């Protein structure tokens, strides 16, 4: 990338994105779309670390999202807690769940790990549906508007337009954290464990400890998205554990390309734009989303960026006779 | 149909294997003739396994493979591994070469009705047991329960059941006691005398050179020397490879 | 709680679980493939059967093969699309793709069959067999018989036939199998076709027991997962026994504690086993 211009580019892009909903007309629907894009992108970034960096499939991140939402809903409706309290509680709750989950799955192999996380999500959905403490099938209603006022500065958000700055801020914070993670030692250890576990071990990296730590780092990110989502929707119910969120997250992670910082954000924007502005109807949209996910992994596993690169090099050079690998998860 | 006027059974031409721009193997031409044992030697990483894997149509990872592989006049270059095996180019790989969870009998079961080619000999189970009596004593044992030498015999036996025109072995002597090594290598000699073309990849040059007709020396993916075994014995580069292999 | 009745319920449910899980046993054991679309394929089998009977007016015995054929086609299509990833043993891609497929199946089924619950009525599900105050429907009895027969046939095929040997070779080492002349790609296609057929068949047989919804399938995946892992991955006999055990556990737990949380309870049992013995209960786990 153009590193020299990065210091200029980042603030410019950020400003563009911040004012984008206003530029696009500023209606309630536009702001709603942008807020959801930000929230779901943040949700996806948590999973991105697990899938792209660690190389595993965690299907439990929907539970972290739900934990964030339910914690927020419970504390704000039953105890009248404010925005900062609910945020802190959501992050803490996510950490607790992630710890328990991480410890349980510590010694499990790749696909057993994924199966277990899948099952946990389904069980969580059952619990959310049936436990009256969580509102049962009705859910928890009447979540008050977001209030993050402190030191006399009023920071409230009652509708999507007012929530947008908060969503934008959350997105920026998460982008920063993800970038920092990728440059950190833990981030390198994650990649090493992913690409060559044996070599990683011989370099002093403990893959199990790494997996646990990445899990613990990623869970609060997704939970934070759930926290804000509760305020945006003003009610929380078991449908927060619907597979829609999981498929959306996965598509966001793979569509643009692995370990591309803005990838999940761009992908989320694409998917939500289709949903909000080019919808073919609820179930047809499901077919579209699922198909996009499958097609990406089957035909261009390197994401749209990988596809773009391949097209560019195919147009430049003469095509070679033999095959080339297309998968990113190459094991040598 | 096979063209008998050619003296070679197996020929690799312009065979190149490249990983992300790095050439792992670049061979102009290697021939194996009917009834001969061709030895391929070289230090670790010289490309010996890459060569036989590429001939068999299989590669570790996802490299670019180009070039031509001919077997008795038939061009195998576009065929996937299982079709090359059925065409008569058999590889007994290194390491995992038998099905550990099946018995010796099951490992030596024929898969499909083989083509009735007059110039291919399809061994049946009894013929394999005749060649390797030790295996018939262990016929109900699982592959994983066999010793290293027995596994090597079983691997060779399995390949013979597919009626090879050319048989390739990747380092059969690894992990075997010296006496077994010479038994296995002598079997190669015997098989070649029945008309089979044998390509033997070996790190143990000392043992191989007594058994092969011709020798090819690989270094960093290229052929640096080749010739009849007797002539190669005196080649200084072989002595170098020899020293490199003396740790086995 | 009537102990005898719960025993019968447990046995019926156990055979149902085993029937649903049989496709996974082969898929996971042979090709080391995970199919997260399993639940939706089960749902599809049930709905195609329902559609054939309720809308097209076909007899049950004709509807079943139709459902199986649809299942096979779906399985083949899935595997054909995932072939590259299968060869590279790219589990992450495969898992995510099967999740995506399941989601597409859910959307397509809801679009085509509607989102309201339906009852899969068959001539067998309304008739009962009674001994004293214990009873089960003919459908239940059919499930038991069919499951037993299917497991026996599968075991015989895997252990005694040439195809079974091919499948076991690929299961153990695909590369070695290729070098031995086996067309591994066709084996993978065949195994996925079997999964499609088996799970669709299970949908046709077990579907009549409860109302069916196009949004269902998740519980079935968990139960299948529990059965396959408890029984030892790849073990046909293990899956059968684990299925029965799970069925009995579910019946008694549902009667004594709570019917809504039976899946959760089964899952907790599995977690306990996995934590204590990561290889599963049976030996021979891969």
Can you walk through the features of this model?
The complex is a heterotrimer of chains A (332), B (248) and C (286). Chain A has one domain (25-268): Orthogonal Bundle (ABC transporter involved in vitamin B12 uptake, BtuC). Chain A is 71% helix and 1% strand. Chain A is built from 13 helices and two strands, in the order H-H-H-H-H-E-E-H-H-H-H-H-H-H-H. Chain A has a two-stranded antiparallel sheet with strand order 1-2. The relative contact order of chain A is 0.15. Chain B has 248 residues and is α/β, with parallel strands linked by helices. Chain B has helices spanning 48-56, 81-87, 104-107, 125-131, 133-137, 148-160, 178-193, 205-209, 229-233, 236-245, and strands at 8-19, 22-33, 37-41, 64-71, 74-75, 89-92, 166-170, 197-201, 214-219, 222-228. Chain C has 286 residues and is mainly alpha-helical. In chain C, strand 1 (128-131) and strand 2 (134-137) form a beta hairpin. In chain C, 57% of the residues are buried. Chain C has one domain (3-214). In chain C, helix 1 packs across helix 10, helix 10 (218-230) crosses helix 11 and helix 10 packs parallel to helix 12 (262-276). The longest helix of chain C is centred in the N-terminal third of the chain and has 29 residues, at 3-31. The chains are: A mainly alpha (332), B alpha/beta (248), C mainly alpha (286). At the A-B interface, loops of A face strand 4 of B.
Question: What's the short story on this structure?
Answer:
The complex is a heterotrimer of chains A (332), B (248) and C (286). By secondary structure, chain A is mainly α.
Interface with most residues:
A-C, 49 and 44 residues
DSSP E strands of chain B, number: 10
What order do the SSEs of chain B take from the amino end to the carboxyl end, as H and E? EEEHEEHEHHHHEHEHEEHH
Supply the CATH architecture of the domain at 8-96 and 166-245 in chain B.
3-Layer(aba) Sandwich
Q: In angstroms, what separates the terminal alpha carbons of chain B?
A: 43 Å
CATH class (first level) name of chain A = Mainly Alpha
Strands of the biggest beta sheet of chain B: in what spatial order? 6-7-8-3-9-10
What is the mean pLDDT of chain B?
A: 86
Oligomer description: heterotrimer
- Secondary structure: number of strands of chain A: 2
Structural class of chain B: alpha/beta
State the helicity of chain A in percent bands: over 70%
- At the fold tier of CATH, the topology name of the domain at 8-96 and 166-245 in chain B is Rossmann fold
Q: How would you classify the helix and strand content of chain A by structural class?
A: mainly alpha
Largest sheet of chain B: 6 strands, mixed
Order of secondary-structure elements of chain A: HHHHHEEHHHHHHHH
Instruction: Characterize the biggest β-sheet of chain A.
Output: 2 strands, antiparallel
């Amino acid at each position: 990338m153009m590193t020299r211009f990065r210091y200029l580019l980042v603030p410019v892009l950020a400003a563009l994105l911040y004012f984008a909903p206003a530029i696009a007309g500023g209606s309630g629907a536009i702001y709603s779309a942008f807020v959801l894009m930000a929230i779901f992108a943040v949700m996806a970034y948590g999973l991105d670390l697990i899938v792209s960096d660690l190389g595993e499939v965690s299907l439990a991140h929907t539970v972290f999202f739900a934990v964030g939402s339910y914690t927020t809903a419970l504390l704000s409706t039953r105890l009248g807690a404010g925005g900062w309290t609910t945020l802190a509680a959501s992050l803490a709750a996510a950490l607790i769940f992630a710890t328990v989950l991480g410890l349980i799955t510590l010694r499990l192999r790749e696909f057993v790990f994924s199966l277990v996380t899948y099952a946990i999500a389904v069980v969580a959905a059952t619990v959310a549906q049936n436990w009256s403490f969580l509102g049962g099938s009705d859910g928890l209603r009447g979540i008050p508007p977001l209030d993050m006022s402190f030191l006399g500065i009023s920071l409230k958000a009652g509708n999507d337009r007012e929530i947008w700055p908060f969503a934008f801020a959350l997105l920026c914070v998460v982008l920063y954290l993800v970038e920092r993670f990728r440059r950190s030692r833990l981030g390198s250890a994650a990649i090493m464990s992913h690409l060559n576990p044996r070599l990683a071990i011989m370099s002093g990296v403990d893959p199990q400890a790494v997996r646990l730590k990445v899990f613990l780092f990623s869970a609060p990110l997704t939970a934070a998205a759930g926290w804000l989502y509760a305020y945006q929707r003003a009610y929380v119910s078991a449908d927060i554990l619907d597979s829609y969120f999981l498929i959306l997250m996965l598509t966001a992670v793979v569509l643009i390309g692995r370990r591309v910082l803005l990838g999940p954000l761009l992908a989320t924007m694409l998917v939500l734009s289709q949903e909000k502005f080019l919808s073919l109807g609820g179930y047809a949209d499901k077919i579209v989303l699922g198909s996009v996910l499958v097609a990406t992994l089957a035909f261009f596993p390197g994401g749209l960026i990988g596809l773009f690169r391949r097209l560019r090099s195919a147009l430049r050079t003469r095509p070679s006779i033999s095959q080339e690998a297309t998968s990113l998860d190459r094991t040598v | 149909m096979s063209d008998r006027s050619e003296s070679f059974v197996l020929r690799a031409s312009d065979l190149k294997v490249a990983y992300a721009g790095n050439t792992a193997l670049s061979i102009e031409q290697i021939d194996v003739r009917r009834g001969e044992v061709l030895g391929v030697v070289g230090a670790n990483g010289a490309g010996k396994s890459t060569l036989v894997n590429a001939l068999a149509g299989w590669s570790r990872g996802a490299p670019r493979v180009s070039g031509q592989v001919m077997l008795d006049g038939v061009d195998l270059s576009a065929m996937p591994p299982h079709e090359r095996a059925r065409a008569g180019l058999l590889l007994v790989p290194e390491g995992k070469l038998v099905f550990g969870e099946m018995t010796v009998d099951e490992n030596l079961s024929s898969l499909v009705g083989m083509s009735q080619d007059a110039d291919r000999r399809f061994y049946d189970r009894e013929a394999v047991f005749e060649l390797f009596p030790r295996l018939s004593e262990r016929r109900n044992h699982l592959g994983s329960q066999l010793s290293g030498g027995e596994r090597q015999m079983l691997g060779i036996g399995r390949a013979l059941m597919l009626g090879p025109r050319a048989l390739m072995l990747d380092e059969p002597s690894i992990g075997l006691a010296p006496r077994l090594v010479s038994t296995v290598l002598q079997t190669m000699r015997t098989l070649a005398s029945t008309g089979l073309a044998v390509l033997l990849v070996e790190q143990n040059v000392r043992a191989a050179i007594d058994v092969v007709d011709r020798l090819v020396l690989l270094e960093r993916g290229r052929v640096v020397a080749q010739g009849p075994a007797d002539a190669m014995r005196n080649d200084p580069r072989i002595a170098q490879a020899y020293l490199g292999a003396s740790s086995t | 709680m009537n102990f005898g009745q719960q025993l019968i319920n447990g046995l019926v449910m156990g055979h149902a679980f085993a029937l649903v899980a049989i496709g996974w046993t082969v898929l996971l054991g042979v090709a080391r493939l995970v199919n997260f679309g399993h639940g939706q394929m089960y749902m599809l089998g049930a709905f195609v059967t329902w559609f054939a009977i309720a809308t097209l007016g076909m007899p049950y015995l004709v509807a079943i093969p139709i459902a199986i054929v649809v299942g096979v086609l779906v399985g083949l299509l899935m595997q054909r699309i995932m072939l590259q990833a299968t060869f590279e043993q790219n589990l992450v891609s495969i898992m995510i793709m099967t999740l995506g497929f399941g989601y597409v199946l859910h959307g397509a089924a809801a679009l085509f069959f509607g989102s309201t619950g339906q009852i899969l009525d068959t001539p067998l599900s309304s008739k009962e067999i009674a001994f004293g105050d214990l009873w089960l429907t003919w459908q239940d009895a059919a499930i038991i018989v069919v499951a037993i027969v299917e497991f026996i046939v599968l075991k015989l095929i895997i252990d005694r036939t040439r195809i079974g040997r091919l499948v076991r070779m690929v299961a153990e080492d695909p590369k070695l199998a290729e070098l031995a002349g086996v067309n591994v790609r066709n084996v993978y296609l065949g195994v996925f076709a079997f999964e499609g057929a088996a799970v669709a068949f299970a949908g046709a047989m077990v579907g009549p027991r409860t109302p069916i919804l196009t949004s269902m399938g998740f519980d079935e995946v968990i139960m299948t997962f529990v059965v396959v892992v408890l029984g030892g991955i790849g073990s046909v006999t293990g899956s059968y026994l684990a299925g029965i055990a799970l069925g009995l556990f579910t019946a008694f737990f549902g009667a004594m504690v709570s019917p809504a949380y039976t899946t959760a309870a089964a899952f907790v049992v599995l977690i306990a086993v996995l934590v204590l013995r990561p290889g599963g209960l049976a030996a021979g786990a891969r």
